[in-house]
Amino acid sequence: MLQLPATEAAAWVPGSPFRLPPPSPASSDFPFLGEAVIPLVNKLQDIFSQLGSSSNIDLPQVAVVGSQSSGKSSVLEALVGRDFLPRGSDICTRRPLVLQLVQTSRRPEDRTELLEWGEFLHVPGRRFTDFGAIRKEIQAETDRELGTNKGISEKQIRLKIFSPNVLNITLVDLPGITKVPVGDQPTDIEARIRTMILTYIKHETCIILAVSPANADLANSDALQMARIADPDGSRTIGVITKLDIMDRGTDARNFLLGNVIPLRLGYIGVVNRCQEDIIAKKSIRDALTYEESFFRSKPVYHNLADRCGIPQLAIRLNTILVQHIKAILPDLKARIGIQLVTLQKELASYGEITESKSGLGALLLNILTKYSQGFQSVVDGKNEEMSTTELSGGARIHYIFQSIFVRSLEEVDPCDDLNNDDIRTAIQNATGPKNVLFVPEVPFELLVRRQIARLLEPSLQCARFIYDELVKISHRCETLELQRFPHLRRRIEEVVASFLREGLSPAETMIGHLIEMEMDYINTSHPAFIGGSKAVEMALNQQRHAKTLASKDVQDLERPSSLPEKQAKARAILARTSAASLTAHEQAAPRVSAAAPEKATTSSSSSSGSSWGISSIFSSSEVRQSANGSSKEHVPARSYAEPVQAPLESSFSSIQLREPPATLRASDAQGEQETLEIAVTRLLLKSYYDIVRKNIQDLVPKAIMHFLVNHVKRELHTVFIRKLYRENLFEEMLQEKEDIAVKRKRCKEILRVLQQAAWELDTNFY
Ligand SMILES: Nc1nc2c(ncn2[C@@H]2O[C@H](COP(=O)(O)OP(=O)(O)OP(=O)(O)O)[C@@H](O)[C@H]2O)c(=O)[nH]1
User: Which of 158, 516, 517, 631 might form a disulfide with 121, Cβ 3.0–4.6 angstroms?
Assistant: First the structure.
């Protein structure tokens, strides 16, 4: 048994199956196995429970599980060696009791240290030296939470027992498994208790004492069933068989203790606790242990199972397992404390130290400003250490906006998508003015291409604004923890950054405006990549010929209904006519425009343009154009306005009235072959030139944004900070600390101290 006055312990025969080993001759203290390790763990447990983070580190503990009234509390009491737990035939344990046994000094000369006492976490500072009072407090605290009507709760009661007579073990007494609800218990009481038990025993660091009464069906033990769920390979389960004294006469638990019925890697221990009658008669634990010893002695069936019988053997077994267990988990524990230490040190560093002197404040301010601008730079450059691996951020987002949004969007734009043939025709006719043109003027092309170039301004400015927004986001990311300490400085930094970003946006936008204006201002038809007039005419003619061929073929097909099904042939013909635009119609309306004309045009253009890329000399002067209303051919003027128009004046006295020209004049629907060609040429030229400009803009707009906005801010931010914020007369105002930071710093320091202490304990005691 654990309660071992030195004299009594010495009287026991070393190696006796029912006694703890006697004190080591080398020391007056009990040389408990693993003594150096278990106090350390208890200490750590203390430390972490103080920090309120016991769940952070899984410390080894022993949980007692079993069905109701199986004898769990009795086993715990016997291990502790004192009567202090509520026991009885009815439900007693209704809240988990976390019981930490702490071995105090055994030196006999130090009388005060021989005292035993208990302390509850919920009654801080009070020592319970009367163990009867401890039992009452457990009952009272249970009732405070749950009333008296048998309800259960998972809220822990934490109790420490200090004694020179205990092994250093932390034990958890859990409510017993019950099947039938009574009193305030809910209908699903069994499931609830099982879930609660599992939350304790599922942890790899928990050693399970599976208590089964020998007078029940051991093969169907609830405790062993639960243990098997949490610990399927049985590596941390000890089977405890209680009530061996009240088994059916003629039966014994030998087979169970040997593990022949349900094997367990850590084996079984059989025990005999006090019965209810003993409790009522206030039989002492010491007497109970004496009785237990004599019981096993009197039963020859258990004689050669001495190491599996009796509470002292259970204590030894537990202690050995705990030592091995703790040794195995300590390195991990140490590593975790190390990680927590690093995190806390970082946090503490972020709160900074309090500085009073002007120079100290200046250095601090400079440091914060430098860190901020460096942070900004590193996020933009993609060199930030805390860069996300799950999404694009910082500079990568800028690149995405340029390439995947801006460049791609421009590529998807068709420069002619908002220009139909009428628009182009109107532009051409407007450009010829009142005269009949000899050559196709460049004016409509330039006019239309400028219109298309102007469309590039809005997306380019939008791109700049997107990048600006990104930079604002990046600036928020640069706020260090340290900066959060100083709300005033933080606000000022935000203001400076925001205005500096705006200042950078403005020249970028101006530059973009200039770029577009430049492109619009001079249409460089000599650009080597420009298709050029001759090529455009040639291509347009080819298109025309192709369309014509298709149309005539389809008309023939239509006239031969037998060759194609009627519907299909009709559809093809209509399609072909549509694609050939109004060519066939105009062939009838304008017989003068023959197929020879385009050829002529080609020849003329190629001979007259020579190596020039311009378009002025594409069309020959002999070509005719339709008038603005399109209803009559417009020939080169052949007579003067003074010439009589029809009959001689004297033949009619009535004056000739002209009809008023309409307020809005539109190009007529009828379209000559020449016009169709001009439209096609204009389209080709437009596309070709627009392509050149688009590429320029795709290249130069990102460059302008990078130069005037991104890189400028990146390079100059620190200088701007110094110019605007680093003022000696502003030091104190800017570095006024937030109130809660002082509190956080203090708390952080405290936790750090406790963790450092824990780490030190591990370093000095772990070997
Ligand atoms: N004869 C005999 N009685 C025992 C033994 N162990 C426990 N008892 C009795 O069984 C009853 C229940 O014991 P407890 O220790 O309260 O059992 P428990 O499992 O903690 O009960 P709950 O916490 O209510 O689930 C008490 O009356 C004990 O005196 C034993 O080994 N022999």
Answer: 158
Measured in Å, residue 19 CA sits from the centre of ligand 1 at 23
Pairs from 568-573 (Cβ < 8 Å, separation ≥ 24): none
Is 178 a pocket residue for ligand 1 (Cβ < 6 Å)?
no
Question: 70 alpha carbon to ligand 1 midpoint, in Å?
Answer: 5
Instruction: Tell me the angle at which helices 739-765 and 311-351 cross, rounded to the nearest 10 degrees.
Output: 140
Superfamily of domain covering 62-245+259-309: P-loop containing nucleotide triphosphate hydrolases (3.40.50.300)
Q: Which range is least confidently modeled, 168-182, 209-223, 692-706?
A: 168-182
Q: Which atom of ligand 1 is nearest to the CA of 278?
A: 29
Whether ligand 1 lies within 6 angstroms of the CB of 281 is answered as no
pLDDT digits (tens, 9 = 90+) for 119-144: 999 999 899 988 889 989 998 999 88
The number of the ligand 1 atom at minimal distance from the alpha carbon of 244 is: 31
How many angstroms separate the CA atoms of 708 and 713, rounded? 8
User: Any idea where the domains of the chain sit in the sequence?
Assistant: 62-245+259-309, 389-543+671-725, 738-766
Each residue of 346-389: pLDDT tens digit? 888 878 777 778 888 888 889 889 999 998 998 888 876 666 66
Q: How far apart are CA 511 and CA 700, in angstroms?
A: 10
- Greater confidence (240 vs 738) lies with 240
62-245+259-309 and 389-543+671-725 share one fold = no
Q: Are 31 and 317 in contact (CB under 8 A)?
A: no
Class of domain 389-543+671-725: mainly alpha
Minimum CA distance residue for ligand 1 atom 3: 275
pTM: 0.46
